[in-house]
Design the sequence.
């Protein structure tokens, strides 16, 4: 099995010209926060008209947010009473994640929206090409045999795999991952900061994608012309710097160890390796001769001279 060294690439990867135009055009069309094109409906209890609240009197910590009945609902934590609801006409909310103080919602029509809970303002909308089709999986083998409940459950599971929020202090962001495309968005305004497609013959794996407080790690699987699995990779995406990629076996598995470190395992022969996603550097294993000079040192080794765990 060939091994590819870790490499660095620029966040705004080069896509075919047409693909770039389609992605950016779709994103620009969905950027403005206007209720009419997106069917937004924010209401109080019982669908009563809801008025903005003082952001200082109500915050995310005061509310319990849930995806209920196809929309987003907010409840007061102290009383349990409903505060407001957010729905979109003709669309169903599938998954909710927090980016800092804001709620990010994935909808079944391929739209991603951001809501500020304190004053229930819909802050921005983003269309993700190919997301709706992957959520439905209508063209996959056996799709016609799924029951309505199975189709809905599949869409919810895929929505959870597609959305990853990175809780960077002061500037959270999010990545949306489909097999054929990933996009990085700044939560502050929904601005598209990068988009990337896997190489020919490869596909991203959203359901095995993970994130830390600094990066989103996306495994990709690849096949040759005969349809046989070949060496893959794990790509790490950042919003504030260049990303990186490391070659792996055909089916890499990424496990989050803590807020900044992940472990990548790619088969029974090669030992797992640990990557620090803040420095985008591999952790030097315990006992390695290069350990005294390592940029990222293991956290659980004992220095013979000190007799205590390394910092």
Sequence:
């Amino acid at each position: 099995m060939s091994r590819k060294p870790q490499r660095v690439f620029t966040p705004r990867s080069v896509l075919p010209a047409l693909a770039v135009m389609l992605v950016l055009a779709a994103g620009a069309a969905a950027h403005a926060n206007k209720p009419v094109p997106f069917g937004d409906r924010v209401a109080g209890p019982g669908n009563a008209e809801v008025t903005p609240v003082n952001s200082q009197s109500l915050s995310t910590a005061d509310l319990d947010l849930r995806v209920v009945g196809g929309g987003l609902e907010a409840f007061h934590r102290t009383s349990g009473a409903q505060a407001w609801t957010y729905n979109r006409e003709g669309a169903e909310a599938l998954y909710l994640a927090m980016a800092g103080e804001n709620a990010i919602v994935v909808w079944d029509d391929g739209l991603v929206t951001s809501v500020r809970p304190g004053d229930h303002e819909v802050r921005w909308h983003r269309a993700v090409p190919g997301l709706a089709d992957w959520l439905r999986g209508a063209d996959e083998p056996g799709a016609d045999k799924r029951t309505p409940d199975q189709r809905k459950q599949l869409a919810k599971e895929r929505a959870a795999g597609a959305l990853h929020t990175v809780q960077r202090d002061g500037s959270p962001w999010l990545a949306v991952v489909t097999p054929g495309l990933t996009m990085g968005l700044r939560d502050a305004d929904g601005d598209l900061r990068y988009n990337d497609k896997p190489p020919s013959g490869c596909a991203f794996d959203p359901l095995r994608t993970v994130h830390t407080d600094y990066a989103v790690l996306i495994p990709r699987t690849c096949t040759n012309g005969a349809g046989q699995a070949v060496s893959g990779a794990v790509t790490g995406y950042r919003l504030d710097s260049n990303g990186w990629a490391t070659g792996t076996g055909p089916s890499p598995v990424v496990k989050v160890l803590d807020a900044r470190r992940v472990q990548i395992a790619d088969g029974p022969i090669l030992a797992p390796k640990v990557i620090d996603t803040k420095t985008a550097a591999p952790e030097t294993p315990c006992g390695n001769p290069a350990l005294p000079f390592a940029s990222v040192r293991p956290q659980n080794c004992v220095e013979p001279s000190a007799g205590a765990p390394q910092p």
